[in-house]
């Protein structure tokens, strides 16, 4: 689960440091808010945009609209002249992204840009059918295409309203949001001069790459911290398997402070899934007690849980890296059942986790049952070009090499304007975060390159717009 991964890590800060949990990749954990230079925390106004409900079928909803939330600040902007920085919101509340993307506002202060963070339909408060949004067939208008069209319509309309029609637009996004920003440049180059796609797994989510990559890379992260980690974790899962084989369920319950003893193979699979998910959320220590330490840190960071309930802390869905909890998780599950392919598996050979398969067939069965849909594994690579991106331009694909999502994205530059940046020691879209005293050299240098390219794109777009006048 792309977003949760990012946010959980920042929640965990103090625990990480106290326990020396992430000693060698401390950047993953440390988020002290020591800003320097100009003021970087702008005041966003929260607004709603009357958005077309269905961009592609004129009969289904007619000209019906819903309220799409966005955040805007003109604090840095040279009115009518400065560029527009537009964040293509991803799977969650837009405030979460705005408050974790300080780089965008820092760059806006330098380039005197208008900043807009737009919320993705079906997430946060942008629900086209309110509480009914997650019913069938109302959920059907949740597609990547509709979301991109929302952003395009919003950009055009807000430019009119703000007398900004000649202002170059640059889109930004992290994770799934990074995929969306890259797609905006592919699909709407008429409106968008360039895209910063941070940690965007555009390839793996289009079914390109191998299904073992993700959990292999999670394993490699832990191994890089402590080489004995892999065997220790594997040993822990093995012990768990043995206890389960002997149906020593009360032992398992007490080891893991479970609310109820497990009583079936399904409960054990659920526990395995919950444990694997804790590692996923914390990719960056010996036996069952290691596993237990980890679930305490990940699932009990509030210190409020008397015991762990297997089925409420982790919900199995069409994304084996977790869908999170709450309404946003329903929307993400639907997306993973339709366009976004997340058939990642662990196998206990190339990774340290118990074998948990998730094939296209498993996905199909689950999705038919849950949402009444059949996934289209080839659609994303048709619609958004897959790995045949070389005729695109002005996109930065940045990735931190500690991020298990990284190798699902573009790691090599494809041309002088399709630039892959590797942030060594970097976690999931570290570059989008505000500058911080603990930033490694690699992320400073990535942000510098990003700023230079974006400055250049803004100039190019300005002269293009002037030539066309
Ligand atoms: C939608 O179309 C109807 C019929 O033409 C019109 O009366 C109404 O004002 C339109 N609504 C919006 C939001 O444009
Ligand atoms: C959660 O944390 C609190 C506070 O540290 C602790 O008292 C409680 O036992 C923990 N719950 C579990 C299930 O470990
Ligand atoms: C992982 O593989 C090892 C070696 O083959 C085996 O002993 C162990 O039981 C396996 N662990 C799980 C959880 O299946
Ligand atoms: C990223 O940088 C690290 C450290 O310099 C290096 O080990 C790794 O191979 C690089 N990855 C890519 C894709 O360039």
TrEMBL record:
Keyword Glycoprotein attributed: yes
Any GO molecular function: serine-type exopeptidase activity
GO BP term (any one): proteolysis
Lineage top rank: taxon: Eukaryota
Gene3D superfamilies in the cross-refs: alpha/beta hydrolase
Keyword vocabulary terms for this entry: Glycoprotein, Hydrolase, Protease, Signal
GO cellular component, as recorded: vesicle
Pfam families the record matches: Peptidase_S28 (PF05577)
Protein's UniProt keywords contain DNA repair: no
Family statement: Belongs to the peptidase S28 family.
Record-given protein name: Dipeptidyl-peptidase 7
Source organism of this protein record: Cyclopterus lumpus (Lumpsucker)
